[in-house]
Design goal:
single chain; mainly alpha; 4 helices
Amino acid sequence: MKQGDEDLKNQFDHGDFPGEGIDAQAHQKIVDALKREEYTLPVYFADRLVTLIESKERAKEISRDNLWLGLGLFSMVIALVVAFVLTDFKASVGAFQFFAGHRGLIFFGIFFILVLHWVDKKILRKVEAF
């Protein structure tokens, strides 16, 4: 530490601060703030702090889950490409000829899935909230 810095530190410690500039005003504000009575925290400070910590942990957990999801999907695509190459796969639409005569069954399936989704959102999720 330089001699001038040490002198300033000693003056700070004794409560003296020479000068009239912005540094003197800043020092005076700090001294005034330290002389005030003890500061009390808001009533729900701890709850908000815990909520903030939990949300950060959840965000970290979600990002970790997304990483594993991405790695899984990438691995699945690589495995699919390897399987196609090793089996000499040829794509054709012959497997979908079954659906041509069963349009009603396809529409019923789509409608049934949408109804189940609606029931889950409107009724079942509300029951779990209580």
